[in-house]
Amino acid sequence: MRIANLSGRLVLVTDTGAVDVEEASNGTFGPDPSAVYRDWPEFLAWAGSAALPAGKPFDQAALGAPVPEPAQVFAIGLNYRGHAIESGLDFPVEPPVFTKFRSSLAGPCGDLALPGDTVDWEAELVVVIGREARHVSAEDAWQHVAGLTVGQDYSERTRQLVPPAPQFSLGKSFPGFAPIGPVVVTLDELDDPADLEIGCSVNGEQVQKARTGDLIFSVPVLIERLSAVLPLLPGDLIFTGTPSGVGSGRNPQRFLSAGDEIVTWAEGIGELRQRCVPGTPHTTASA
């Protein structure tokens, strides 16, 4: 099953196009793309047995973030060994966790306004929680996942690393800095949800490519560690970390400029596409 947000409405994407869920379910499920995760078991049961109508063709540009209003957004740092090495940091013994604020979420295609001249790219697999998880073991963790999508953890490095205390969440939460999509794909659609190719290109040049099987902390382990501290709620998002190849890890460093096009993909899910445009410059106060 491939779930999307088409012009603000919950749809299923099939071989023939988009099927409006509210219409197809005769109102059993509403149009809100985020609300469906609160009724995930019921929705799965309906979708598995429903005789869906033919889908309608749609414009990819009309797709929004497939989960536009999660209660919580978790992001994991240094979760690929290559990225830790290029960052000059030790491998973590616990998942480093920060957030991307919800207002940074965006759909899979569109403009990315650059608030400064040190904006970096970070391709990521994103987990969507389908069932509340509290003190869940890694062995049981996949049962709490609704599906997977693709994300970008765009980062304004100057704001992120301003001394004396880095501001990861602020530096990664400018408007449009968390595009996700184009769809949420349920696990049964993927040959191996634990090992997907993921990558990113800038102006057609491949800058990142890895497999999610190389994560230091796998999806089940992330759910285990996070749910040991606080409940993971239906519709929550987990950005699982980025592989090596970010601009700040290059010599010389490379950052995004107006006119650049970034394409991010994950095997079996789809791709994101952003075009960089000038934004409102940000300032940082001196201590």
UniProtKB/TrEMBL annotation:
InterPro entries: FAH, Fumarylacetoacetase-like_C, Fumarylacetoacetase_C_sf. It holds the Pfam family FAA_hydrolase. SUPFAM superfamilies: FAH. Belongs to the FAH family. Residues 73-275 form the Fumarylacetoacetase-like C-terminal domain. Keywords: Hydrolase, Metal-binding. GO terms for molecular function: hydrolase activity. This is Fumarylacetoacetate hydrolase family protein.
